[in-house]
Organic solvent tolerance-like N-terminal domain-containing protein (Pararhizobium antarcticum), 185 residues
Amino acid sequence: MSANSTSSLLLARKIAVAAVLAAALAGPAVAQSTSSQMKGLELSNDQPIQIESDKLDIKDAESLAMFTGNVKVVQGTTTLQAGSMVVYYKKGGGSIQGGNADIDRIEVNNKVFLQSGTQQATADSGSFNMTEQTLVLKGKEVVLSEGKNVFTGCQLNVQMNTGEAQLQACGGRVKIQLDPKSQQN
């Protein structure tokens, strides 16, 4: 395997782990109130990660990698899809070519879709700040669902290291539809 292939593989794994972790944290909010604790999905290092897009541009001078067109990140039962995904790296924290760059943040846009098991979230855009351990999903309508339980707002904020989540209404109202049968064993 060439050095470029190895560094590309390491880069893809770091991006996918960060994106999948953020995706996994977004899903459990559907079973919670509009401001609550969330449990993150535990990721396995032995599960393969797959990233697909129509195009990948790596810009070392700007410390970023841009995936455009039908972006799809999959690990196990967790999937992230978007029209585009930009990964920003910390300057001086390694290099993309060397496969050891520290991810600062990831931004996804254009019809963001997250699915983890039976849980789903949709939004217009999302931002994963790896330094601050925050996930923000935004849109005209951010929808979280698990089965018949549906939460709707315009912005979901998740503190990834504590699991605390908040769904905002942005001038409107947060809407919740709960199916009482979903709580039965």
